Amino acid sequence: MKNIIENIRLVVSMIIIGAILLYIGTIVFMPESTIKVFRFQPYIVVTESMEPFINVNDMVIVTTFKIDEAEVGDIITFKADIDYNGTEEVVTHYINEIDQSGEETIIRTNRHFEEGETVTPDTWLIPASDVIGTYAFRIPYIGLILGFIKSIYGIVIITINIAIFGTFKFISKKSKKAEEQQELLQDDQTNTIE
Question: Which CATH class is domain 39-148?
Fold first, then answer.
């Protein structure tokens, strides 16, 4: 019975590790396909345009976007050339208007606004095909942690911690092995004396 439980744990662990590696591989090598394959994708917020609802360094999780279910006021994440310099950036804003009069649905968005404020739509027009996903939820401040991990200081600290942990593990194994050998020698001496 114990052997069966250990095998089940091993299989479950391998499935989880495989899924994580597949997810990381998809994000690195096929970022456009991540949301199609896994039905969600995380993004770190880098501007204040949605504060205080979504803050800088929050991680937003977006899920698959369906244009026929979209409504004004929904929060979407999309690609747009916001500076009109030929470079698309990922943006998360509210839907302000949905225009389905042409061949492709065009969406206008707006940043966060407080009750009673005049809503000013963003200047860019987003084809529905440039929408990455619909906002599901946010995880506050995780961008700070990820930023630290990616920084030179974070890399150095993580490397030092891994080296210290590895050293302690190595020393622990060596001392345990030495203790086992000492016990074997004592057992041999006891058996020889008898």
Answer: mainly beta
Enumerate the domain spans of the chain. Answer: 1-37, 39-148, 152-182
Reference 94, options 79, 116, 72, 115; nearest CA is 72
pTM of the full structure: 0.74
HEC profile for the chain? CHHHHHHHHHHHHHHHHHHHHHHHHHHHHCHHHHHHHHCEEEEECCCCCCCCCCCCCCEEEEECCCHHHCCCCCEEEEEECCCCCCCCEEEEEEEEEEECCCCCCEEEEECCCCCCCCCCCCCCCEEHHHEEEEEEEEECCHHHHHHHHHCHHHHHHHHHHHHHHHHHHHHHHHHHHHHHHHHHHHHHHHHHHC
pLDDT at 188: 65
Residue 169 has pLDDT above 70, yes or no: yes
Q: Which residues contact 33 (CB under 8 A, 6 or more apart)?
A: 26
